[in-house]
Amino acid sequence: MPKFKRTLIPISGVVYGDVIYWATIVASVMVVVGTVETFLTDYHVIQPGYLLQAVLEGNSISEIWEGSALKEIPRGHWYLDILPSGEGVTTAGLALGVFGVIPAIFISAFFLWRSHNVFFAFLAVVAGIITITSMLGIIPLPVG
Amino acid sequence: MVQLFRKVPELTFLICITVIAYAVIEIAAKSGTEPVLGSFSSIDLIIISFVFSTAIAIVAVIAGVGGGVIFTPIMLAFTSIDTLIIRSTGLVVAMFSGLVATGPFMRKGLADIKLVFFGAVPIIVGGLAGAFAAIFLATHLGETGDAWVRLTLGITLVLIALLFIFGGSNTEYPRPRKVDPLGQRLRLRNTYWEESLQERIRYRAINVAFGGFLFFFVGFTGGFFGLGGGWAVVPVLNLVMAIPLKVSAASSGVLLAMGNAAAIWPYLTVGALIGIVAAPWMLGQVIGGIIGAHILATIKAAFVRNLLIALLILTSLKLIARGLERLLKIEIPIL
Fold it and tell me: Would the ipTM clear 0.90, i.e. be above it?
C-alpha cells in the first residue's frame, strides 16, 4: 500500500473541469429529451425522417433547410426561437454543452490569478475572449 | 466496470436514460420509422451512430486525440453527406469526449491546466491564421501545393510514430536532464499520482518557447487543411516538452476540446450543425468520454503509447495516400 497518494491538484483546474463536466451532463439530458420529443410528438419544424433522408442523400445545408418549415437557412442562435420543439431543445442542448467552456475559462482564470499565475490567467482570458467572439459571430473560426 | 458505474452515478444515469429513450423511440415513434438507408430507418441509424460514437470516444480519450480523426475520414470516404455537415458533426465528435473527460482528468491531476492554456491560445490563433492563409494561398498553390503539404505531413507523422517506437518507455515518463529557464519562470511543473505504478510522478516542462511555437504550427496546419490538431498535441507535449505520456494525452484532450468549442459556433449559427444528426454522436462521446477518462487513469502508459503509434500511422497513411493521389492523379483505395 502506498504511504500517501495525495498530490497537489490546482483548484483552477478542478473548477474548470467541474463546470464543464456538469454543463455537459445537463446538456446531454437536454439532448435526450429533445431527441425523444422529436420522434414522439407531431410538433416539428423539420420532419426527422425527411431530414435524415436529405442529409444521407448529400443535400446541401440550404437545400435541407428550404424543405423545412423555416424555408431558409436559419441564422444566429435560431434554436432559441424554436425552443419548445424537439429540434430546438436538442440543438440548445448541444449549444449549452459548448457554452459551458466560457464560464469555466473565466472562473479558472480567476483562480489562476489568485494563485499568482498571472501569465496563465491572462492566457485564459484571451482564450475566453476568442471563444466569446466566435459565439457572437464576430470572427469566423474554422479551427479543428 | 461495475465499480466505475457505482463510483460515477451520473454515468449510470446517462446510460439508463439514453437506453430507455432509444427503446421508447423504437417502439412508439410517430415519425422516422420508414427506411432511409437500405432497411435501416432513421431511428436505427441514430442508435447505430450512438454505439459507434461511444466506441470512438473511448479510444480517442485514451490516446488524447480528438475523435474527429477517426470520424471525419470514414464519413468522407463512405458517405455522400455534405462536407459542411460532416465537419460540424466531426467537431462534435472531436470535442464532447474531451469536454466531459475534463472533469475526471482535472480531479485526478492527470491534465495540467497551465499546459492547457499555454497550448490553447497558440493553437486557436494559429488555426485562425491558417484558415485565412488557406483562402489566400489556395489561388497560388493550387492542388499540387496542397498535395505536397499533405505528403510532408504524412511523412512527419510516420517519423513521430518512429520516435515513439524507438524512444521506448523513455517517452512514458521522460526525465529531462536540462532546466528550461522559461519553464522554471512560469512554474510549468507538477506531480500526478500514477495509479498503475502506485507512485507519484514529478515532471517539469522543457523547450517551452519551442513548444509554444509548435502549438501555433499545429493550429496553423489544422486551420489550413481542416485536419484538426489531435495528431500532434501529444507528441509536442511528450517528445518536445518532456511531459509524461498520460499527462500529455489527458491535457491534449482538454486542450483540443477548448479549441473546438471556439470553432463550432460558426457552424451552429449558420444552421450547419443539425441537432438530430449530431445528437447521438454527442451522447456517445459523453458516455464514452467518461468511461475512457477512468480507463486512462488506471491503464499502463505503454498501452497509451502503442495506441497512439497505431493512430499516428493510420492518420499518416491517409495523408500520404491523399497526397500521392493528387500528385500522381491516381486513386489509392485507402480510407
Answer: no
